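Quick illustration, no need to memorize.
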Amino acid sequence: MLELWMLASGSSGNAVYIATENARLLIDAGLSGKRLVAALGEIGADPFSLSGLLLSHDHNDHTCGAGIMARRYKMPLYATAPTWQAAACKLGPLPQTSCRLLPGCGTLTFADLTVETFPVPHDAAGPVGFIFRTAKEAIALVTDLGVVTPTILERLQGVNCLVMEANHDEKMLLDGPYPWSLKKRILGNSGHLSNALAAEALASVICPATTHVVLAHLSEHNNLPHLAFETVCEKLTIAGCHPGHRFSVQVAKRHGPSCNVRLA
């Protein structure tokens, strides 16, 4: 069994729970410790049972609760070397035994769960995407990236569940109140994926093994859940994929647990 819960998703905070029979991981901790514990409680997960906390990158919406969670629950905290350096002041003092190195491109094993990491293009220090594998199932988690490279597409082949960023609608972003410098950053190759770019990437990797697609990290000001869903589903249908037939499409909620996926 391989299970996913999106605990929170968006610029106001990100956290993901991944579990197997013998391993339980928290991916990112972009909420306060109190809110993270409450979200874990909603899905029946004990923070003391976590095998580790993995950080995708150093931005505050992925790290703000990481230090307190690692200290309070005495769990190993994994980050790439550049992320450790960039996030040190945010994480606060940690015992040396809690500080673990996450490879920028490599593999870690937690009991019956294998975690593969790969670099993603984002304006952060050593950002990574993840693939979580058991003997039979695989979940990919890819958010906070400006473009999906051919290497990333190659890594996403044959995955059962795809969690993909669909951050913004380009028209909403361009017509919105953000200053041009911020719009340019979001639209750049080290920014965030639009709904259209997410759909294009998904159309390239959805396969007969794919059963679930989760759209994540939606912008609060430059996207709408129904718009992300409709845009991605329309483009996938045009590309010859048919949401609702072999695979489902869900949109992760900004606040609170959502999009529970169980693969067996």
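The first helix runs from residue 33 to 42.
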